[in-house]
Amino acid sequence: MSDPLLVEAEPYAYGFDPRHTALLVIDMQRDFVEPGGFGETLGNDVTMLRRVIPPLRDTLAATRAAGITVIHTREGHKPDLSDCPPAKLNRGAPSLRIGDPGPKGRILIRGEYGHDIIDELAPVDGELVVDKPGKGSFYATGLDETLKQAGIRSLVVTGVTTEVCVHTTVREANDRGYECLVLSDCVGSYFEEFQRYGLQMIAAQGGIFGWVAPAAHYIKALETRS
Ligand code: C5J
């Protein structure tokens, strides 16, 4: 077995074997990142999330060049909403509800333009796209089985939003035995304080949910291999 690659991270160095690692890109969909989608209907300033696009594009390029598995997720629901619990559908007072027609198609519905991943981070051939009805990537998706079959033990986690789908996914993954490295500048929140505290909560207490590092540290670790 070869030595693991080491990433300078909080709370201490993160070691991973690229053959047993996947990059997870969570919900980089127009519905969250562009005006007229789900994120905006909830009253959020979606431009806050766009800052993750350049570092995430670099991270994707380095990951693909290293031959590491890339998996994308999309939050959304079937057109008949049969997989959307009433508690989610009726929550709060959004300007449009899930399933309503919006400028980018029906809000958060599979197959609609707004539901798809932004052009800048579009999946390439061979990359898995996991459609999920919940905030976590493991709930009702079969992701755990897919990762286990592929021998994946380490997850490099990116995407939006830090405190919702990224956090839920990292917690689910941690409980299932995966070692998660969250790339601090490749995850984004609509709220500055949630970004800060969300990242601190992952690495606190000796890495209670995982590790945190900027994308440059992960990319540097990949470069030491070549
Ligand atoms: C939210 C997500 N924030 N992808 N979804 O509702 O984080």
Automatic annotation (TrEMBL):
Superkingdom of the organism of origin:
Bacteria
Keyword flag Lipid biosynthesis: no
Which keywords fit this entry according to its UniProt record? Answer: Hydrolase
MF-aspect GO terms: hydrolase activity
In what residue span(s) does the Isochorismatase-like domain sit?
21-208
Q: Which InterPro entries match?
A: Isochorismatase-like_dom, Isochorismatase-like_hydrls, Isochorismatase-like_sf
Record flagged with keyword Ion transport: no
Q: Which Pfam families match?
A: Isochorismatase
How is this protein named in the record? Answer: Nicotinamidase-related amidase
